[in-house]
Predict the 3D structure of the following.
Amino acid sequence: MNRKPTIGVHYDACYEHHDTGPGHPESATRYRVLRAALETLPPEIVRLPGRTATVAEVLLAHEAYYHDVVYRDVAACADVLRTGDTALSCDSYEVALEASGAVLAAVDAVMRGEVTRAFCAVRPPGHHATANRGMGFCIFNHVAIAANYLRKKHGLERIAIVDWDVHHGNGTEDIFAGDPGVFYVSLHERGSYPFSGAEEDRGSGEGIGTTLNLPLPRGSGGALALAVWDERAGPALEAFRPEFILISAGFDARKDDPLGGLKWEDATFAEFTRRLVALAEKHAAGRVVSSLEGGYNPPGLASAALAHVAAFSSGPGG
Ligand SMILES: [Zn+2]
């Protein structure tokens, strides 16, 4: 087999309409810098269109009650979502639906074979949103919606969600804690927001063993993270044999991030990407879709994201 992978990327100025107010780290400015960097990608990287998620798709991972809370808070132009520390503007509901929809569109493009792997540069981020609570700058949990969409619409049975954002993805863990069909792996800074993600938390009920939390000490760099991955996460995911890999791709574990205390290099994100590409080529027909989470030093976010997309091309023929 010598198949050349086709890589997709999605970005759109519509995400800049979610206005979090002056001085907020999860800002439209941060996104503009990333978008300008992605516009420099070579033409063989396919630019994927987005779409609006339906309410039924949002309900794949969220309770109807919570969807209605978001709708009503945004319709009232509230400054902050009532369930948590997520800033809102009058367009935030529509933008959140675009963000979830773009990840689903990328999943469809991969499942149709139009691209092998794709990075979705969307905002607001998603991994802190539980089924019934938005928090931590997140409204809807895009990767959680995508994991259930892959199973419901495309008939897959085993999905891996790899979360390398510097913060623990409490929302994603919570949604799938009891679900043996979704393997959630999180690498995050120990003792940081949202203060969950202890190594002892391995899921619940039938889902015991398909949650893997790997907290890393503050100040540590990429070499330790990769070593922990190779010892713990790599073998676990090999045994799980995922049919699709979703990445909660935050870039706030990078050095010089104002909200993160780890010291990863751009090359660290490239190395993680190559490991996941190899795993996907072995078990998942190469299929990987990543969705932007954090990353609050705009130039660092842009350079780390470019390294991630470039490493997507590794693999057979790449
Ligand atoms: Zn984060």
Q: What stands out?
A: Strands lie at 7-10, 46-47, 117-120, 159-163, 182-189, 211-216, 244-249, 288-292.
